[in-house]
Fold:
Amino acid sequence: MNLMLYALIGLPTVAGVAALLLRGNLVRRCLLVVAALGHLGLTIAIWNQQVLPVESGQWLALDGPGKLFLGVMSLLFAASALYCFGYLERENLDLLAGRTDSTNESEQIFIGCLLFFEAAMTLVTMSQHFGLLWVAIEATTLASAPLIYFHRHNRSLEATWKYLLICSVGIALALMGVFLLAVAATGTTKGQEPIPLTVMDLISAAAAGKLDHSWLHIGFLFVLVGFGTKMGLAPMHNALPDADSEAPSAVGALLSGALLNCAFLGILRYYQVCAAAGEGAFCQQLFIIFGLLSMAVAGAFIIGQGDFRRLLAYSSIEHMGIICLAVGIGGPVDASLGFASSGIAASCGAFAAALHSVNHSLTKAALFLLSGNIRHFYNSRVAADVRGAVHSIPWTGGLWVACILAIVGVPPFGPFLSEFLVLKAALDQGQYFIAILYLLLLAVVFVGMTSVALSMAFGKPPEGEREATAPEPIWAVAPPAVLCLLVVALGLYLPEQLKTALVDAAAAWGVGK
Amino acid sequence: MMLELVLVFVMLTTLAVTGAGRLDTCIRLVGFQGAALGLLPVLLAMSGGEQGTLDTAAHTGWENAGWRVLLLALVGFVLKGLIFPGLLLHSLRAADVRHDVEPVIGFGTSLMAAVLILAGSFWLAANMKLPHEATSKLILPAALSTTLIGLLIIVIRRTAITQTVGYLVMENGIYIFGIAMASEQPFLVEMGVLLDVFVAVFVMGIIIFHISRDFDERADVDQLSELKD
Amino acid sequence: MNWLGLIPAGLALLLSPLLLGILNQVKAKFAGRDGAPFLQPYYTIWKLLHKGAVYSRTTTWVFRAGPIIGLAAIMATLVLLPIGGCPSLLSFQGDLIVFAYLLGLARFVTILAALDTGSAFEGMGASREATYSAIAEPALLLGLAALAHALPGGVVVPDHLAGLGVTAMHDASLSNLLLGLTMAHWMKLGVVIALVAMAFWIVTLVENCRVPFDDPNTHLELTMIHEVMVLDHSGPDFAFITYGACLKLWVLGSLVVGLLLPFHTGMLYVDLPVAILGMFAMAAAVGVVESVIARVRFVYVPQLLVAAVVLSAFALALQYGVPTP
Structure:
């Protein structure tokens, strides 16, 4: 098992180094695709294995949440890598044809950093030690910053700077939170053995009452604010819209789909320790507040949003808010969501959070990839310039409509199911006020997004030199199509293996009130 | 005594960075601060061995660390005292900027704000009850004030380079806290943290160079305000 | 009332113009000139006292009273100030506040007299002086507060001081601060005292209108601060002002010297010469500072003064962290 873990991290790292050293764009692109597919293969192999319980003192291990997020991230990366294969070629041709007004970053750095980014995210999902987790999350920031600056113009430079600085500051605050956790874990009696900062050890120490509660509170606040900056929780969300919208679409897909989950994983690990110490209620209240606030802020900015990439970024903020809210609602451990044989059961809210993170990641990645196609065809990022996508670029337009409907929560797509489960969890516990607020904010976002995005798909295409329909290369359509199909499938049927994985993940977060 | 001198020096350099107008002065000051911080693990280990000025023996966990302490001190000294300021000075020369612009609230007001934060962190540190006594009563105020003043610098300054300096100051503050409070942590974590900050500064330096090249000379972050809703 | 206190007061009255002479000599030597003789300020004051005064028709009694009250205020501070190991004439609880305010009174009447002339130059100088003092005074007070916190009163009078007639160490008294400071204090609270000494040094420079805040040798009215305020005084009034300036340098400088030279053996004939030599060294140091650095631009002076305030405030804040002896 350990060998597999090392291989999962090692493969992208080695490939990244190789990409920096090799010559030839085609070779590098092939390397990217091969590495991504290899990573996906290893992940599928790990999914087929049994999840072993994590031992004490282990720094690298794959537990329930880690496995889930690793699976999603690997799938997304494979889709993005396939998309990038053609995307980079198209960018090159555009540059030579003089269609773009700015230069591009060298492909060497882009592909290298992309692979390092995957390695860092893999490390995040596997880290059981808080210090290592912190190092990995900071590494994701550093690896992704050059990716945002692919198109070299002022706006992307501004986005890169904001992203780098704001995320680094946030993550520095999270480091303070990790140190505060260490202080909480030093214990009240002198001379005792220090508790290692791994999740399992801290959970058992917390259950034994050895952790100092006031320090846990302060530390959780720091970690929530710190990693929340990266995750996009309002009011720390400022870096997200700029970064996600200025980055190339494949990178945006990864940032929104995979990175936000990794940041949330950091917060959730701390939550696991707090919950074991009996402070779960305090943390859940904070989750609810930040979740609702994120949804509200996102809704405010989605209405009347002119740039469709920023629209998607704000939608990510909203969905992160939903996931946060779901964990906050939690609920009593629901036996119907478990398996009698393995004895694992999860709470409805936590299960909804896990399911929603999967649904959101798949849908958002598809949307970002499609937005890249739209932007290329219409040569504009403003939604008002885009009309009649269903006629001009039929595949992209059709998938765009489907995915937009998915992301706002229309059945039969996956996000409808998970958002419904969140509502059910809230109503089950009598949290009527939260449920009403939740529905209201969902409605606001529904109206805002559909009015902008659907009008892009229909209507008459603008006059001009555009051909009636443009050829859509397979690499631009296939990855989003596959993701969209998965989202539809998840809305109709939940395969057993996935359900087990979701319950495993949710069981870690599902300590109810 | 030596420990207290170093901590006071760190706090003074933090205040000086808040008030400094010239960019290379800021960078050099944060370099001095980092160099002083490199000595901190060694000083803590030395004073953890004696009884100190407190009645109960301070439990720092450094006593038997030996060579690790020296290695961490050396790496910290080299990275924070030499390499980080070196990287930033290199970007500064490439960007060819000399003077900083006024912070958003003015130099005098920002110095006053920094002093208020300093006083506040002394008060806060006096009211926090730690699980075990720290070696010196100055460590917690120094850590808190450096972190918060670093955050203040990032918020109120307008040049990209001073924002990076502010980030370094903030990281220094968190480093003090980590070394003093969480000293049982394996030093691998500290090394990882240092490495991360190194790469961060490296990447920031490159971006600063691009900012200075693409925007007007002054690398004024105020100009980075095109993206908004 | 400790009659031994007449010694420090007498020394101040006698030797303060010599400080100015030393200062000017040091500046001259730096500039490669021979410079005026050491006793030149005495001759200047003597000459001025024998001249007649000219008063503008636009001035009132305020203008005539300004120099007199100013000199009186500064001479009053001499009553409170010990030097070396020698106690002052008067010492009571809280006398350092009286000290600070007497200096403030002297500054106030100077500004009033300047405004009384109705001239634009004097008014400009007065406003600048007021601004600088507004920022420098907190530095002085905070530094004194930090010292008072570090050396609280009510302790047993040490033997060598009891022999000199000191009956009690009052709280917040200059005598307590300057006489009670020993090497032991430096060992324990050295950082605090060093910070306060640095703040006091900056305050000395700004209150005496020295470079880097004001150039005493400038002849351009637009750039003057202190000289322009006293531009219209002549004769004995100007003698009083010059003498008052020398005394002010002595008074503020003795604060710095007292902090930096905490040797009190109890034998006056050892302590006093050491202290006097310290004062001369301080005057030389001011001369060196004047020769070596340039005057700071007006807009940056508040920054420097705020730095002094920050140093004093920091020294005060540090009291919470450093254990008191």
In short: Chains A and C do not touch (no CB pair under 8 Å). Chain A has a mean pLDDT of 85.
